[in-house]
Amino acid sequence: KMAAAAGAAAAAGLWSEVNRCGQNGDFARALKSVNKILQINKDDVTALQCKVVCLIQNGNFKEALGVINTHTKVLTSDVIAFEKAYCEYRLNRIESALKTIQSASQQTDKLKELYGQVLYRLERYDDCLAAYRDLIRNSQDEYEEERKTNLSAVVAAQSTWEKVVPEDLGLREATYELCYNSACALIGQGKLNEAMKKLQKAEELCRQSLSEDSDVTEEDIEAELAIIHGQMAYIMQLQGRTEDALQLYNQIIKLKPTDVGLLAVIANNIITINKDQNVFDSKKKVKLTNAEGVEHKLSKKQLQAIEFNKALLAMYTNQADQCRKLSASLQSQSPEHLLPVLIQAAQLCREKQHAKAVGLLQDFADQHPANAAEIKLTMAQLKIAQGSVTKACMILRSIEELQHKPGMVSALVTMYSHEEDIDSAIEVFTQAIQWYQQYQASQTRGANPKSAVHLSLIREAANFKLKHGRKKEAISDLEELWKQNPKDVHTLAQLISAYSLVDPEKAKVLSKHLPSSDTMSLKVDVDALENSHGATYVRKKAGKLTGDNQQKEQGQGEVKKKKKKKKGKLPKNYDPKVTPDPERWLPMRERSYYRGRKKGKKKDQVGKGTQGSTTTGSELDASRTASSPPTSPRPGSGAAVSATSNVIPPRHQKPAGAPATKKKQQQKKKKGAKGGW
User: What pLDDT band is residue 335 in, cutting at 50, 70 and 90?
Assistant: First the structure.
């Protein structure tokens, strides 16, 4: 009895110590006291609960869960449900936490709060939204602002990942967290400018809130603002301001924030900006996406996007095996997703294995008919790249849900025209028109109104047939168009033109429906039109100008004078009485009287006299030049003819031989002479 009394007294003292340490927040010391109590009574339920709480407060979640699982008989689910679920949640065992919460016999407020967090992590946003609404409606305590923040985060996630238009919850954006979540919801809707304003407001509120605490430094404020700045950079990237976005991303990385999720997202976004350029920087950024704990910080779609970009980066860096490995892993995780198979096909194309790439895409299209349209479009693109346009057309025509689309019809007609397969092009038009006829008949219960798209296709078909000489085939289309709009003169003119080659009588009958020239004439003031500012041609009026007009014309002439044509210069020895040589403009060798140059006449004189001399002074005698026969004029003889002489100047006469020109003799430098340098 004395031992029991002593033990009870010791336990009472230890419990006092536990209570005091708990109030002071010293859970490490409280844990020591709890362990001493458990040495006295190992199955004390209260002591075991206190031990679990102390371990949780110290961050030892795994050890706390071990204590719970070891003492299941004592710590039943009714007693310790919240602590067990919380430990599982913090250890990222989300599914287990959900089961623990759902198996609890009584749903306390604490369990409901944790239930909302678990649903958010499981991305069950609809259930999560309902849970938080219920909590806000039925709770009145100091945590109401936090619950509203969580509620706005759920709405933002729905808008971003599920493309759900968020409803107005009427939340007052008094904190920077609420402003930030509202901005994220706007980004999901594509309202980027509004989202940027919200983020700027969130930044301002954050600075005001943190600056009130004297212990918070500027570095702490910048670290808290990192996530807001990251979202701003993302908006810049979406707006095409990649340089500004890249600069802001790098500023955030330099701050070295502790949030591995934020760093992973920023690194991934930088990789998407780099694309196939600056791959060395991208390979460094990939390391940030592989940090420990990233998978628990991001949503499934974010993680998937990061893995896709890793595969693309491997392709850009010519790591073919790595690219195939990553894309195969992604395909096994999401068999119905398009991107993994498209990445594999792109890698095969880089390796010049186009046939294998087409086969891979065809297999995927057969296995997943729901996604076959996009895959077949890619297959057609590959066929066009190989030059197989006809095969590409066959693939495109196999996409039933796109056959009638104007864009598809236009592409097929263009490709068939390129291949000069006019019959197939007309068949494409016919099938599309028939589809619209059947569709509209089913929608209007037998009535036959034509939609704008339907009429546009008929008109394009008619124009195409007329362009390629198929006027007989174009007649039915033109008649259909004219029937829908009898006032369409352009269609009627086309119809008459087509009938003129097939049935002239029918063309005459139809021509009666053309409007008369009186109804088509336009009341236009021709003079006003010609004198308008934009007129490029002004008709000249016949007849003499009146006095006023003459003065006006003279006045205009003073402003802008006509350029006078200059008279050609005549030679100084020009004689108007002498008829000019009609062949004077032809080269001498092409003239009819050219006899060629005589050779060897001065052979005996070469080498006589000074160096380079070929003529003597007597040969330059003017008298000898004047009396010399006209068949062989001397070089330079034209220069000695007097202006008063009766001799016909050389420019006007018909010389019998070719005039020779005497070149000036170049004086060579004396040997040994020095240059001027």
Answer: confident
* Angstrom distance (rounded) from CA 50 to CA 80: 11
- Tally the C-alpha atoms within 13 A of residue 570's C-alpha that lie toward its C-beta: 8
Tokens of 158: 């729905």
Task: Answer yes or no: are the C-beta atoms of 343 and 315 closer than 8 Å.
Answer: yes
Alpha-carbon distance values, 398 to 121, 393, 403 (Å)? 42, 9, 8
Q: Which two three-digit tokens encode residue 360?
A: 């891979």
Residue with tokens 């340089």: 243
Query: What whole-number percentage of the chain has pLDDT above 70?
Result: 78
Global confidence as pTM? 0.66
The residues, any chain, with a CB within 8 Å of residue 157's CB and separated by 6 or more, are 120, 123, 125, 299
pLDDT, tens only, 97-114:
999 999 888 888 889 999
The residue among 607 and 84 whose pLDDT is bigger is 84
Residue the block writes with tokens 């844990």: 31
Burial class (CB within 10 angstroms; exposed 0-12, middle 13-18, buried 19+) of 33: buried
Give how far the C-alpha of residue 18 lies from the chain's centroid of Cα atoms, to the nearest Å.
65
- CATH number for the domain whose boundaries are 433-513: 1.25.40
Phi (first) and psi of residue 515, to 5 degrees = -65, 150
497-539 tens-digit pLDDT:
777 777 777 777 777 777 766 665 556 677 777 777 665 655 5
Asked if residues 349 and 382 have their Cβ atoms less than 8 Å apart, the reply is: yes
Residues 6+ apart with CB under 8 A from 183: 195, 196, 198, 199, 202, 231
Taking alpha carbons only, the member of 476, 455, 474 closest to residue 464 is 474
Q: Select from 2.40.50.140, 1.25.40.10, 1.10.10.10, 3.40.50.720 the CATH code of 1-106.
A: 1.25.40.10
Sorted by sequence, the CB contacts under 8 Å of residue 439 that are 6+ apart come out as: 404
Please, which pLDDT band fits residue 120 given cuts at 50, 70 and 90?
very high
Q: What is the dihedral of CA 182, 185, 190, 194, to 10 degrees?
A: 0
pLDDT recorded at residue 118 = 94
Please report, for the chain, how many H helices and E strands are present, in that order: 31, 0
What Å distances lie between residue 349 and 278, 326, 354, 356, 532, CA to CA?
22, 17, 5, 9, 61
CA angle (491, 493, 495) in 5-degree steps: 70
